[in-house]
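Chapter review: from sequence to fold.
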Amino acid sequence: MGEINAVGHRMVHGGELFATSVIVTPEVLEQLRSLIPLAPLHNPANIMGVEAVQEILPNVPNVVVFDTAFFQSMKPEHYLYALPMEYYEKYRIRRYGFHGTSHDYISHRACEILGKEYSSTKIISCHVGNGASITAIMNGKALTTSLGFTPLEGLVMGTRCGDIDPAIVPFLMKTEGLSADEIDTIMNKRSGVL
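The token string follows.
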């Protein structure tokens, strides 16, 4: 344990608060907790990991790297939904994008292999696995991406349905008598390629 100089953590959601990786401080932890409603399946576990390491290695710095940070360069016309603006202002409902650490690595590595200048390329990167997404990158900045407010939007994935007609949700809730949590579980864990 004495050989460990720092610990890095992948944090799924940094909201609009984090556009880069940061060293964990008590203030950062508080900000991360405030983002739990945006990623209730992922961020609590990520925070638990940080706190566990802090307990075991109290004098070792922890750094959080955010999947959403790569997409903070997107312009409003690419991240805003065609919903009333009040929902963005009140709840920060917008396209955040995910798999950012992967898209960042993929695009940089492709430029290395091809001998291209990263800051002057146009790239489409594909993250394909149980979760899947596509990102357009122009001049080294994320332009737009297939994932949205949550990792459910976009491509069909291992257990996620991806894009569907939004009217299917209330239809199934009414006809099947499903709660919001039940329909969320169906779309995230019982759909897609499964």
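Two observations follow directly from the output. The radius of gyration is 18 Å. Strands lie at 7-11, 22-23, 62-66, 122-128, 132-138, 141-145.
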